[in-house]
Amino acid sequence: MNTHMTPLPPAPTIRRPAPTWEQFEQRLILEVVRNQPEPRAHNHEELLANRRQAAELRARISKYQRSLQRPVDQSHVKALSEAICRLKVLVWRMFPFNDLPVEIVANIFRYAVWSTTSSPDGILLRFRLTWVCRRWRHIAVHDPTLWNTIWFKDVKVGYQRSELYFERAGAATLDLRIEDDDKSRLDPDQPMTGKDMNRILDILMTKSDQIRMLVVVVELWPPILVLLDRLHRSSRSLRQLERIEIHRTGRPYRWDGPGYRLSDYKHALSLCDGYTQGINHICLNGLHLDWDKSCLTNLTSLDLRRMPPDLGPSLERFRYMLESSPNLRKLSLDGAGPIATTSLAMRSYPPVFLPRLESLILGDVLVAYAIYYARIIHAPNVREMTLLNLGGEDHTPLFNVLTGKFPELLMLTLHRMNIRMSAENGRTMVQWFLSIPKIKFMRVAATMADMLGLFNVDGRLHIRHDIPLNLTPEYRAAILNNGSFIILCPELEAIEVEHVNIGSVVNFVHGRKNLGVPLRKLFIQHNWLESMEDPEKEVIKELNDEPDFINVSVPMKVTPVEESIWKQVRGG
């Protein structure tokens, strides 16, 4: 056997944002592995040769490491990284993997399968594990936990793959996803029907007592109605169901019963006939329930989207859902929520205390409704809040209500917020920012430019309501001579921007630096960056005076800064 390894490729020349040594090393190793021949069993002489080569590499690495204690030569760094990569790959290829106990091999397989970044990759990788050899196939096929996450999206092969996974999952708990979209359909113009949904549920309900998670994404009402009916009829056997998401992507939002062939449904259905005690995570998108007969309690996540305003839960029922969920961590109302009632009736209730709520999302409602909703809850430990697409010409009254409610806030997203600038509104916004002093990350999209300019204001001028809005020079001087500059959000370390005035972004970055609290990162949303004119891109580039200050962010994906903040919050 030829024991010489394929030469390493040239070092990457593309500049990447802030690569760590581990990331750099991983890229090199992956390049080496991709260029290696298929592995095979080594005979005794080949193993001895490999061990000699490994000893030589270890000696070479030790030599390079000693040299790095002196002024560093770039060639030594490259040689060291190359030697380390060669050694690691060589040791891996010599390792007697098939001598490991079955339990350890199975655990390695699980790590490999669940480390993929996309569902299609995970699906293919599970099959590939069964193609290597008889031993690997036997271990993989007989490990139910490798197969118990099933994506029913293979209608073009008659759901054969999903049924195979379903069979191999054995008695393991099941995490299921049913999805209907243009790419997966037999006919792109023919969305899933109620009959199609029945066919899938005929399979699933044979193991209804094993279902732990169920996510359904369809376009039309008929499959939704079939689903709700089958869940209703199978409710007593759904003992392990913890998480349910039902997304109906099409219009209309409302369905009162008649108008479809499934005319047996004369009114909204309950969820699982009220037997929902085990469900702690619920998301309903584009459909409504019989709320009074759906016992939604002990929730950790409640996500309601796209519902007609008169088909949400009553205020009393909504409050009951919250009060019965003391461990609620995420609450999202996006174009949905409790039915608005008179201000007099609302004032008779105290806010619902949600001590564990971490994430709050409110969007696609009128600002008056947002104010109504904000007064329903008391959640002082919220760490992340998103406000998006609120109706109305001026959203400042909402921030007036929110001031002081979220002192532990760390991450804030503002999307399409309208602030009608005036002296009074400016003070309201400054006081809002003063009330969230721990904020570390902010995302601003399609929001008025003047809002960023408020961050350069001295908080002393607005910290109290009795300070006149139009100060005389003498009064202003008296305030500024008393104490130090009060910086708004002094711990803010990163911001992501999209469709915001470029000049306001530049002034914001320079302003924070002049105040002695410079940003560590500026994220530019990828799609916006691509649509910029060349002059705008040049202005952005001029801000990159620190290494890796400007980063490109991906839509719908959290930034590394947000990931780091959540790890700190949860002690990870």
From TrEMBL:
Residue ranges occupied by any F-box domain in the UniProt entry: 97-152
UniProt protein name: F-box domain-containing protein
Source species: Russula ochroleuca
